[in-house]
Amino acid sequence: MKRKMIIAISLVYAIFMIILAVYFFSTGDTKKAMVGIGGFVCGAIPFILSLFTKFKFRLSIVVSYIIFLFGSQYLGSIRGWYGFGWWDTFIHFISGGMLAFMAIALYERLVHRNAGDDISPGFVFLFILGFSALGGVLWEVYEFSCDQIFHTTMQGGGNFDTMSDLIAGMVGSCIIAVCSWIRTILKQKQKSL
Q1: 6: how many CB neighbours lie within 10 A of its CB?
Q2: Among 5, 30, 75, 148, which is 20 to 30 Å from 57 by CA?
Q3: pLDDT tens per residue across span 139-176
């Protein structure tokens, strides 16, 4: 049932964004059309992964991912909420936390069940923080590349915008990483009693 929900939610968002892309291409607004295409690709990722991999994603992660995409792509880029100033920082803060939760889910799937007793809580912290930081850096590379290739203004504030985004993402991911670090310590102590 969860798999069907993930596929349905992903498809609804992807179809919504491709319809917007076609509409904006027809009106000559290529910037919003490109956001629509990006939304289609990003929205289709949970659908593709559900069909072609054995990873089982938590429904809550997929729903939060689609909400994040909606907030950043539709509300932020298409509806113009990035003009509020604080919206971009808020979205990067949220994305840092979301990437941290994805890192936790990936960690739980890749590490052998009994290995959790022997793994350093500091390693768990660094894995989550490193995964989230890489996600933030890759996003900034994407923004920079779009600005250079398509002459967009995704990095409207230049270096200040890039650093603010990276810091906001790191703060969001650091909160989750610290909580996970504490949780790992507590689990290990509880098992040793």
Answers
A1: 23
A2: 75
A3: 899 888 988 898 877 777 778 888 999 999 999 999 99
